[in-house]
Specification:
alpha/beta, about 200 residues
């Protein structure tokens, strides 16, 4: 079976969710896909976190997500797991990409990104959300979260993939940068876009 790199809705519209553990590269891949498709890139972190790490109620967050998905109904690429609104996103997505890398591949990149954010060399995950050394090195920080959630996310998305994989007629695929899958997939996407 020859599966295209993106399924879409059959009418040239693509609504894509990129999921995976924190720091795995969801935002980078999402920005790449959004640029290639010329659709908005939506960050769930930017919708969830307010200045000073303020967070909305679950209902308010779902309303924010619903509004942005409705506003961009023809196409979007959204990065993030959005546990509070997972079905809201996945029910509208034409494609779900699980970015699944070995921890030893992406943990050093996450540490580097965190350092650059701490030094104010790159923006934080959301406007007004500054990372501090204390937070970064604590059990509340992103590095610890990444380490402790790696296995959990692999089980969570592995179970979802077992139910909704493209091979079973669903819309979810798993990509792993380490074994070259991501590079091959990007080349296939470029080919698909050249010929449409």
């Amino acid at each position: 079976m020859n599966v295209p790199p993106l399924l879409g809705d059959g009418q040239g519209n693509y609504r894509i969710q990129v999921v995976g553990n924190s720091g795995v590269g969801k935002s980078t891949l999402s920005a790449y896909i959004a640029t290639k498709l010329n659709v908005p890139h939506i960050s769930l972190d930017a919708l969830f976190f307010g200045p000073g790490w303020a967070t909305p109620s679950p209902d308010e967050f779902r309303e924010r997500v619903s509004a942005v998905l409705t506003e961009n109904s023809k196409g979007w690429v959204i990065d993030g797991n959005g546990i509070q609104c997972a079905t809201l996103i996945s029910d509208r997505a034409t494609d779900i990409i699980w970015l699944d890398l070995p921890l030893w591949v992406y943990l050093p990149r996450l540490c580097w990104r965190t350092l650059l954010r701490l030094l104010n060399m790159i923006p934080g995950c959301a406007e007004g959300c500054l990372e501090t050394w204390r937070d970064a090195l604590s059990t509340n920080g992103i590095i610890w979260f990444c380490i402790t959630h790696h296995g959990y996310r692999r089980r969570q998305f592995g179970e979802k993939l077992a139910r909704t994989s493209i091979a079973k007629g669903g819309n979810m695929r798993r990509l792993n940068e380490w074994d070259g899958e991501l590079t091959v997939w990007k080349a296939e996407l470029e080919d698909m876009l050249r010929t449409r």
